[in-house]
Amino acid sequence: MIKVVDLQKRFGPLHVLKGITNEIREGEVVCVIGPSGSGKSTFLRCLNLLEVPNGGRIYFAGKEITDFKNVDINQVRAEMGMVFQRFNLFPHKNVLENICLAPLKVRKYSREEAEAKAYDLLQKVGLKEKALAFPDNLSGGQQQRVAIARALAMQPKVMLFDEPTSALDPEMIKEVLDVIKELAQEGMTMVVVTHEMGFAREVADRVLFMDDGLIVEEDTPDNLFNAPQNERTQSFLSKVL
Amino acid sequence: MDYIWDFNVVVRFFPVLLEGAVLTLELTCIAVGMGILIGTFVGIGRVSKNKLIFSLSSIYVNFIRGTPMLVQLYLVYFGLPAYFGPIPPLMAAIITLSVNSGAYVAEIVRAGIQSIDRGQLEAARSLGMTYSQAMRHVLIPQTFKRIIPPLGNEFIALLKDSSIVSVIALEELVRKGSMIAGRTFRSFEIWTAVALLFLFMTLPITQLVNYAERRLKQE
Ligand SMILES: Nc1ncnc2c1ncn2[C@@H]1O[C@H](COP(=O)(O)OP(=O)(O)OP(=O)(O)O)[C@@H](O)[C@H]1O
Ligand SMILES: [Mg+2]
Q1: Phi first, then psi: what are they for A161, rounded to 5°?
Q2: Residue B87, SS3?
Q3: How far is CA A50 from the centre of its chain?
Q4: Per-window interface: A 60-89 vs B, CB < 8 A
């Protein structure tokens, strides 16, 4: 589904991604863990080209999307949902409008179609009764569930999550993780950057450990958490587990 | 001091002063209206990644903000006729004030757009919206509330600065004042009245700005 070959990213003199190569298969749930500043967010943001890579190639659904001259970036992004740490709901629009905006403007759905789909998704994330509420009047957990529904409304092929629960109060983490788990069970292809090791262990098909701009180790959660091979993985896990 | 106040003169000429005040208000409203139109486009140009659009809008803004309005007025009123033939004073005044206001409004719009959290643009783009869709549906609507107070301040500033067009014989409030003062030798009374008329026009807007700022702070 997504294939990454020797991905490089620099911010000025800072070399953040130093050659990432990996493949995310259809229906796979991949969790990305690693210390702060290791480049996890940058890696994720390169996948939907929110950051423009300085080198390497990214293939999505069989097509090279880093071939900028021949690729419609907006079309690529429409096929990849992204959920941010800080939700980033549109504060001037209510929940329903948040969800419907992109389907209406990008996919050119009719309003009836878009709203019907939005209500289905709200039902799925358990917030049907909040359709007309504004984001400021929702809890963090509710906002994040709306953000997930908003991304799903575009019917993406892949969902990218960047620490979806890091900005939440502890009592709200579960409601968001449960929604993501349900997606995983339905077979959605997902890349999840997370600090929730319990979640990664339970849901991931594969875990990538990143450090200093590289994927240092990758394995099934059982192997990676119980028997990490690399010394840096060991030291990271000993601190967080 | 044996100057004896005589505010009767103000009463007598009040209709004339009022006429001037109305022209002042009209000029300001037209100029700020045009300014908002110009400033919205130029302000968006000032955050554009397109180098040509960015440069052109920056040159405009810097030129207007870096030169006296009086010089801009002379340039329009005395300078442009060299190419376009004579321009009526009212037209010159409206052009100058509008173009001047446009630059200041552009900076207000730019600051408004830049004050919106980066995450908003990223969220919009991640959903597949184009840059201009994201601007139109996500960023610009969020700037509306935030730019009301500075726009009010711009209105007040322009209302006062519009008196500059008196130098090309437009009979707005200040010009009326000096005509009456010259005729009646009642400078103190007349200029007090002129000042109060300005205050009368600006105070409601000051109140509005304060109210809008309080509302924003509460959010
Ligand atoms: N837009 C940017 N401009 C300059 N430097 C940046 C930018 N974005 C990220 N960086 C730097 O790149 C490095 C990697 O950042 P990144 O956000 O990818 O790390 P991360 O692994 O997601 O960390 P965290 O766990 O704290 O979220 C950091 O040193 C960061 O300061
Ligand atoms: Mg991060």
Answers
A1: -120, 125
A2: coil
A3: 12
A4: 74-75, 77-82, 84, 86, 88-89
User: Closest by alpha carbon to B53, among B45, B61, B44?
Assistant: B45
Banded model confidence at residue B17, pLDDT cuts 50, 70, 90:
very high
Interchain CB distance below 8 Å, A90 and B117 = no
Dist. CA A95–CA A48, nearest whole Å? 24
Whole-number percent of chain A with pLDDT over 90? 97
Q: State the amino acid at position B114 in one-letter form.
A: Q
Provide the pLDDT for residue B1: 62
Average per-residue pLDDT for chain B: 94
Cβ-nearest to B119 among A77, A86, A101 = A86
DSSP string for residues in B29-81: HHHHHHHHHHHHHHHHHHT-S-HHHHHHHHHHHHHHHHS-HHHHHHIIIIITH
CB contact under 8 A, A77 and B117: no
Taking contacts as CB-CB distances below 8 angstroms, the residues of chain A near B129 are 74, 101-102, 105-106
Residue pLDDT, tens place only, A31-40: 999 999 999 9
Residue B43: count other Cβ atoms within 10 Å of its Cβ: 28
Please say if the pLDDT value at position A196 is more than 80: yes
Instruction: Point out the ligand nearest to the CA of residue A84.
Output: 2
Beta bridge partners of A81: A159
What ipTM, to 2 d.p.?
0.93
Q: Which of A78, A89, A90 has the CB atom closest to B128's CB atom?
A: A78
Can you give the pTM of this predicted structure?
Answer: 0.88
Nearest to B166 by CA among B27, B15, B16: B27
